[in-house]
């Protein structure tokens, strides 16, 4: 990660909350527009299925008939693969703009919302996922509480998050491995930490599956938690 990126992230932390949010959202949109241009005008989402299944040692049947919620979903169509689910909802503060960006051709449902206050009832979903997004939110503690609130007892909470990286414009929180302790209504079924590549590519890093060299190095935390009754 460049020195300029680190400095920008540090300066962003000092900006008023409204300005921070606008800058972060515009940076996110700029990133996805660039991805869309490089891909020739079509987003690819084929990698998501293995992130939900292989990475967490879950079969496709595990998701059959379940209500699924993906937080910080982005525009790619993270739940397009899960046509066996009863419902598949993606939440993002930029959901409306992402639907416009992807052409509105996807089968999953997009809902515009921050993760800190979700527009769903208690225990509304059997699976709640958040991939590469928890360090992007406005309030980590509130987001963790909401993730657990909307998850049904016995349901799965699937988490992929970068840890121990300096703050950036789009990732203003430096999280650590002990983050899992804050999920006080869940049991940790499995957790692993992987090294992150120099190019900061989360999904290619997961494919490489290299162990982190030492504690405190930037890395990726993957965890499956289960909501207690």
Automatic annotation (TrEMBL):
Cleavable signal peptide: none
SUPFAM superfamilies, A to Z: S-adenosyl-L-methionine-dependent methyltransferases
Membrane-spanning intervals of the chain: none
An example Gene Ontology molecular-function term: S-adenosylmethionine-dependent methyltransferase activity
GO biological process, alphabetically ordered: methylation
Domain Methyltransferase type: 69-158
Superkingdom of this protein's organism: Bacteria
Record's keyword terms, sorted: Methyltransferase, Transferase, Ubiquinone
Alphabetical list of InterPro entries matching this protein: Methyltransf_11, SAM-dependent_MTases_sf
Protein name: Bifunctional 3-demethylubiquinone-9 3-methyltransferase/ 2-octaprenyl-6-hydroxy phenol methylase
Organism: Jannaschia rubra
């Amino acid at each position: 990660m460049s020195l300029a990126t680190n400095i920008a992230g540090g300066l962003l932390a000092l900006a008023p909350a409204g300005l921070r949010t606008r800058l972060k959202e515009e940076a996110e949109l700029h990133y996805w527009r660039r991805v869309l241009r490089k891909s020739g005008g079509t987003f690819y989402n084929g990698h998501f299925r293995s992130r939900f299944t292989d990475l967490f040692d879950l079969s496709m049947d595990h998701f059959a008939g379940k209500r699924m919620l993906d937080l910080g979903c982005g525009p790619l169509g993270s739940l397009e693969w899960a046509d066996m689910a009863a419902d598949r909802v993606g939440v993002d503060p930029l959901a409306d703009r992402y639907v416009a960006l992807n052409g509105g051709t996807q089968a999953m449902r997009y809902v515009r919302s921050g993760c800190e206050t979700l527009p769903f009832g208690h225990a509304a979903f059997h699976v709640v996922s958040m991939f590469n997004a928890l360090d992007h939110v406005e309030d980590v503690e509130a987001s963790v509480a909401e993730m657990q609130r909307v998850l049904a007892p016995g349901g799965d909470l699937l988490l992929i998050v970068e840890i121990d990286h300096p703050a950036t414009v789009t990732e203003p929180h430096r999280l650590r491995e002990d983050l899992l302790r804050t999920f006080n209504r869940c049991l940790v079924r499995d957790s692993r930490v992987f090294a992150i590549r120099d190019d900061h590519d989360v999904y290619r890093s997961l494919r490489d599956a290299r162990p982190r060299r030492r504690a405190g190095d930037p890395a990726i935390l993957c965890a499956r938690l289960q909501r207690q009754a």
